[in-house]
Predict the 3D structure of the following.
Amino acid sequence: MTERPRPMTARAAHRRPPRVELYERIVAAIHDGTFPPGSVLPSEPALAGELGVSRPALREVLILLQEDGVITRKHGVGSRVSHQLPPRGLERLSPVEDLLDTPHVHGRRLAASRDLPTDFSAHHLRLSGSDSTWFWETLLAADGVPACFAHEWAADDATLAEVVPDGPALLDRTADAGRGGASDRSMGAVLLAATDAPLTGRGTVGATLLGEERGAAMERSAQTPATLVTQVVSWGSRPLFAAKYLYPAGAPLLHVRQRR
């Protein structure tokens, strides 16, 4: 009997959750041809043994892979690799700073506090009314011109720590770092730099006006039209942070690259 190739050796992890590591091992095996598109994965007991993990841990990761469209699962048939895989790289998100079409982006933190959730954050982050979570407001300037208001909310500490083990402490340390200067980063930039987890984003685009307070901060009229981008970043079914990004008319263009 020909032995199945076993290239799925765990990559060196830096405090990443075991589920993240397992997810990435299976995805890597799919992309390197060990489990090609359309193939049926080994049974859960066989695959768990091959990977050296418990069946409950594997089952949870298979559910995440199904949610992300990497595999399909059917009772009595097992798990099958999708014929058309999600394009590689879509699960790798970029911070909002990278979308502004210039390398010269600087941030200034206007607010950083732990608050009870708003309707927006409670809905998108599945927070209860008693959960306390970080809220950041950061003004980003591109080439010295105010370009984006970033309003961002983190998930509750327990959820955040599942994906970014030191996430709560990291936000504590960086919330006020450099406040009033020009070195503050968005919450998205801080969290994305701290994890290799395969994250996904879901967003909407709309239109609004700057309003009095944001207009004053940007030295623009309150009636200035603005593009409003909302985004929720998740690992599998677990939301990590939610944001509203506001770009006034005349701000530098957003630079979006299609990944292949």
